Amino acid sequence: MKAFFKERLIYFIAVIITMAAGLASRRFGELLPNFVHEHFGDALWAAMIYFGVRMVWINRSKELALIVSLIFSWAVECSQMIQTPLLNEVRSTVLGALILGRGFLVMDLLRYAVGILCVYGMDRYFLRNKKA
């Protein structure tokens, strides 16, 4: 039981660190290389989603977390094609824009996939011997 909570705590901390890094990449973007500024925020958002899924479904496979994270992040991106007054009002707030985004970009789908695949790889590498 203790290991169960330890794993959740690890993923919770990963969510917080990833969230902080993503917000910092937005806030201090002009200080970062252009490539980092343009791409890392979206990749980190998707990475945060992966860690959140792992935290909630700790006993499920990493592969399921990868698939659910991709579907969720791509669904949020595709939802940006829906432009209603209520959704646009939510998106006009800082929190709404951070969660729902503002406009659909195909490039974001790639950024999300790369972010999720990177942290999935890190997750497998760092926790591969956990059950051994």
Task: Please tag this protein with its features.
6 helices; membrane; 132 residues; transmembrane; transmembrane helix; DUF2809; globular; single chain; mainly alpha
Give a topology summary:
Elements (H helix, E strand, L loop, with lengths): L1 H26 L6 H23 L5 H18 L5 H7 L2 H7 L5 H22 L5
Helix pairs in contact: 1-2, 2-3, 2-6, 3-6
Tell me about this structure:
The protein is an all-alpha fold and 132 residues long. The protein has 6 helices and no strands. The chain has helices spanning 2-27, 34-56, 62-79, 85-91, 94-100, 106-127. The radius of gyration is 16 Å and the shape is globular. The model has no long low-confidence stretch (mean pLDDT 90). Keywords: Membrane, Transmembrane, Transmembrane helix. The chain crosses the membrane at residues 9-28, 40-57, 64-82, 94-122. InterPro entries: DUF2809. This is DUF2809 domain-containing protein.
Give the DSSP E fraction (strand runs of 2 or more residues).
Answer: under 5%
Low-confidence parts: none
Sheet with most strands: none
Number of strands: 0
Which geometry do the CA atoms define?
globular
Give the termini distance in whole angstroms.
17 Å
Sum this structure up briefly:
The protein has helices at residues 2-27, 34-56, 62-79, 85-91, 94-100, 106-127. By secondary structure, the chain is mainly alpha-helical.
